[in-house]
Write a structure and sequence with these properties.
Radius of gyration of chain B: 20 Å
Distance between the termini of chain A: 39 Å
Strand content of chain B: 5-15%
Strand content of chain A: under 5%
Distance between the termini of chain B: 54 Å
Structural class of chain B: alpha/beta
Number of strands of chain B: 14
Oligomer: heterodimer
Order of helices and strands of chain B: EEEEEHEHEHHHHHEEHHHHEEEEEH
Shape of chain B: globular
Shape of chain A: globular
Number of strands of chain A: 0
């Protein structure tokens, strides 16, 4: 059902790529944002949330989310591994970003990624 | 509705406009409907939106450090502080006390929204009795609003999902859902089976959890708007509170201005060209208000000239802001709550969350400008016993 079959990959997909998956489901460049958002809603990965008792509200919220992060999502698509090693280390090393500050990127939790250090540092 | 800017005004339930006027935010008295207290304490006056300057003359102040999603430890700390009853009813027992929480409620634990809910509920109760609850935002709050979920506990994603469901059940009445969530989440936990977060089914749930969290916490999201009600810098009488550490240049920029900039960013308000810029001075970089550890470093690691330099910067800051001392969280103190630099800085984060050090809670109490550390329930018990004899 959900397209999250790991068998073809050596490690579990990152959460970021899963979000990217929903939002790029059936995406094609020639469609309007509305059409793309509708299609994203149809991704099986969120089907049970849509079909639940709060389906209508979830769909509305998700649509709003999708439409409002169109620019940011392009970045997520292009950079599925949006974090790099050196940034994972210590929360003190706050990255002073050179990219535009308007971007909203979701950086997934450390525990969802295959990483070298088993424990989080303080 | 759920997103796209927060139009909802702050709950102004017990606030009344004060007589003074200032262009933007006239100070407001937290008027209590109850008769004046026996000891004749003046009502608390708050200035700024989010609150920046608080006048609470004669009120007992208690400060609690980083909670990091551990509701049980948070409750213990609040009971120790003498503001929360121990009967499990989440009742404010602090009377006219002012409670200040130093930030970092998010990340490393799974009861984040529950803790925020508890503090909000206590604030409502406190205001009815002449007290108040304040919070300052920490770096983990700002990180989450930026979408940086690196330190989010697995169970916290579940809480986001559950809370969104509950919010829906409450027909999107934010105040109703948010105030009652702490109690609701306790009941939900009793009912739920423990879940193994791993496994293919839960991959789907995890995705949903990330989306839910993002919906709640992205700039303009309802939980981000809730956090936007809180400052990053708070001055109460002669004490200044912030998560990491305040520097002279922050004061020069203007602390009310900094608070407003962070709040606007959290609420997703634009400057006309779209989303606002992230307020770097307050939230990014090792010398920002929420990340700064200058005053929290272990003295034994420092040379004498460094100690003098830091003390000088601290003094300069306190003078500029008109405070006698600063209270910060952010850096877990393995030796417990302590003060340094002539007790001009109090470091109150002890790492009490089970996701940090699982340390025994400790809180700071300030009475008549004198601070002391409360290390156990016994400390507060003694206090109550002494009070009986006066």
């Amino acid at each position: 059902m959900a397209r999250v079959d790991n068998s073809s990959q050596s490690e579990p997909p990152s959460l970021e790529s899963l979000i990217a998956e929903a939002t790029t489901y059936g995406d094609s460049e020639n469609e309007s944002l509305d059409a793309k958002a509708q299609k994203a809603l149809e991704c099986p990965c969120i089907a049970n949330l849509r079909n639940g008792s709060c389906g209508a509200q979830f769909s509305e919220a998700f649509l709003c989310f999708l439409k409002s992060t169109a620019e940011e999502k392009k970045c997520i698509k292009v950079n599925p591994d949006a974090f790099s090693e050196d940034v994972l280390d210590d929360e003190d090393e706050v990255k002073k970003e050179v990219e535009p500050t308007k971007e909203y990127k979701i950086i997934p939790p450390e525990w969802s990624v295959a990483s070298r250090s088993p424990k989080q540092k303080l | 509705m759920l997103r796209c800017g927060c139009g909802a005004p702050q709950p102004m339930m017990l606030l009344s406009l004060s007589l003074n006027s200032s262009p933007l935010h006239p100070p407001r008295k937290l008027a209590a409907p109850t008769p004046p207290s026996a000891v004749g304490l003046k009502p608390i006056v708050v200035s700024g939106n989010p609150p920046t300057f608080v006048s609470a003359p004669g009120h007992r102040i208690v400060a609690v450090g980083d909670l990091h999603g551990d509701l049980a430890q948070a409750r213990r700390a609040l009971e120790m502080a003498g503001v929360l009853g121990s009967d499990g009813q989440d009742l404010w027992t602090g009377g006219e006390t002012v409670l200040i929480q130093l930030g970092d409620i998010l990340d490393r634990g799974e009861d984040e929204i529950a803790i925020l809910s508890l503090l909000h509920s206590l604030d409502i109760q406190a205001k009815a009795r002449g007290g108040a609850v304040f919070q300052v935002n920490g770096n983990h709050e700002t990180m989450n609003i930026e979408g940086d979920f690196r330190y989010v506990d697995a169970g916290a994603f579940d809480e986001c999902l559950d809370f969104l469901e509950y919010l829906n059940y409450c027909e999107y009445d934010w105040e109703k859902a948010f105030v009652s969530w702490a109690g609701m989440s306790d009941r939900l936990k009793d009912e739920k089976m423990s879940q193994n977060y791993w496994g293919p089914w839960n991959l789907v749930k995890r995705q949903q959890g990330v989306i839910a969290r993002s919906t709640l916490l992205r700039p303009g999201g309802p939980l981000a708007c809730e956090l936007a009600r809180h400052p990053v810098i708070l001055k109460v009488d002669d004490w200044v509170f912030c998560h990491g550490g305040l520097l002279p240049r922050h004061v020069a920029h203007g602390i009310e201005r900094l608070n407003m900039e962070v709040s606007s960013w959290m609420r997703g308000l634009g400057e006309g060209d779209g989303s606002p810029k992230i307020p770097f001075m307050a939230t990014r970089g090792y010398d920002s208000v929420v990340w700064n550890r200058l005053y929290s470093r272990d003295i034994s690691d420092l040379d004498e000239y460094q100690i003098n330099q830091i003390q000088s910067i601290l003094q300069q800051t306190l003078q500029a802001v008109g405070a006698k001392a600063m209270v910060v969280g952010h850096t877990p103190q393995t030796t417990g709550v302590n003060c340094k630099y002539n007790c001009s800085i109090w470091r109150v984060d002890v790492g009490m969350s089970s996701g940090v050090l699982n340390a025994q809670p400790e809180v700071l109490e300030i009475r008549d400008d004198k601070a002391r550390v409360i290390k156990s329930k016994w400390d507060s018990f003694h206090e109550l016993q002494t009070a009986d004899y006066t």
